[in-house]
């Protein structure tokens, strides 16, 4: 489903990702873990071109984009983006739109589908994330956990092949974390392909097929979730996990 090879990303002269190689199979859940500043968010953003890598290739589905030599066409960027749905730390809902308006905006403008069909899809997804009774509310009337569940429904509306989550629970009060993680776990059970940046190690252990440990812009170690988190091979991974307790 996803194949990343020799990816490099610099901000000005500072290299923040180097020699990144990994793949994600259809239906697989991959968690990116590692210390703050190790490049996890930047890597996730490179997958849907919110950041443009300097070198390397990103293949998602049958779309392959090579970076480095020539400028990317708008079409290539749009094509690659259409494969993924992104959920951010800070929800990013439109404040002046209701939940239903938030989640139906993209399919109505991009897909040119009929309004009735889009609303029907929206209702199905809002039921799935436990938000149907809030469909006519505005974001500021919702808790952070409810806003994040609406944001997940919004990303799912475009039927993405892969869902990308950037620390989806780190802006939430602790008592709201569980409701969001449960929705993501449900998606995992349904076979949704996902790449998730997270600090929730117990969640990663439960949900991930594979965990990548990043440090200093490199993937230091990767492996099956339980194996890497309970029995890491690399010293740096061990130190990181010990610090978390
Ligand atoms: P993580 O998600 O692991 O905390 P990030 O991907 O956010 O790490 O950041 C990796 C490195 O890239 C950090 O040193 C950060 O300061 C730097 N960085 C991230 N975004 C930018 C940017 N837009 N401009 C310059 N430096 C950035």
From TrEMBL:
Keywords tagged on the record: ATP-binding, Cell membrane, Membrane, Nucleotide-binding, Transport
Among the GO molecular function terms of this UniProt record, one is:
ATP binding
The record's listing under Pfam families reads: ABC_tran (PF00005)
This protein is called Amino acid ABC transporter ATP-binding protein
Q: Which residues form the ABC transporter domain?
A: 2-241
Tell me yes or no: is Mitochondrion among this UniProt entry's keywords: no
Localization terms from the record = Cell membrane
Protein's membrane topology: Peripheral membrane protein
Output the superkingdom of the source species. Answer: Bacteria
* PANTHER family in the cross-refs: AMINO ACID IMPORT ATP-BINDING PROTEIN, L-CYSTINE IMPORT ATP-BINDING PROTEIN TCYN
